[in-house]
Amino acid sequence: MIDETLKDAEIRMNKAVTVLREDLKAIRTGRASPGLVERLRVSYYDTPTPLNQLAAISAPEPRLLVIRPWDPTILDEIEKAILKSELGLTPNNDGAVIRLSIPRLTEERRQELGKIVGRRVEEGHVAVRNIRRDVQDDLRASEKEKLITEDELYDARKKLQDLHDKYITRMDEIRKAKQQEILEV
After folding, report:
1. Model pLDDT, residue 33
2. What is the CATH classification number for the domain harbouring 82?
3. Residue 86, domain extent
4. Is the pLDDT of residue 137 over 90?
5. Are 100 and 64 in contact (CB under 8 A)?
6. What's the burial of 70, exposed, middle or buried (CB within 10 Å: 0-12/13-18/19+)?
7. Is the pTM of this model over 0.90?
8. Number of alpha carbons in the 13 Å side-chain half-sphere of residue 83
9. pLDDT digit string (tens) for 32-52?
10. Alpha-carbon distance 160 to 169, whole Å?
11. 101, 118, 133 — which closes off a domain?
12. Which long-range contacts (CB under 8 A, 24 or more apart) does 136-141 make?
């Protein structure tokens, strides 16, 4: 029972790390990356659809993204979605593809993005802490119901804390890598 609970906690913590990674992909660095726009929602027949389901996104150059929609009639909708987004990029539509030129980041913008990364990582930390708290509550309830002993509770809580520390460390490594990527000139 304890092993199942800890395995569930590990799966949930791993999901929190995965969500953080996906979330940080959308933060602009000085380099073009398809992850920057692939989750952007585009109105396709009045249905918000992720851009990566509507178009091929490539980065042929370090500072250029090319979006080639499979249905050319949605070029205008893709353009509107990019303009509405917080990316701060201006699309260049030539009738067949959309080109996004990624300008160099100013030092001020780099610091701003570093703070955003920090906030997102802290949100990930909170998610992991909440998972730990929920599992601790479950373990305490099991101990009160005499399903596990006090010693088993103690051991399980230690294992849970080790799990927590492992995923917090992993998130901090992701933060460090992303901030280094942002600071690259």
Report:
1. 79
2. 3.30.1360.40
3. 34-101
4. yes
5. yes
6. exposed
7. no
8. 10
9. 778 888 778 888 888 888 888
10. 14
11. 101
12. 136/160, 138/5, 139/2, 139/5
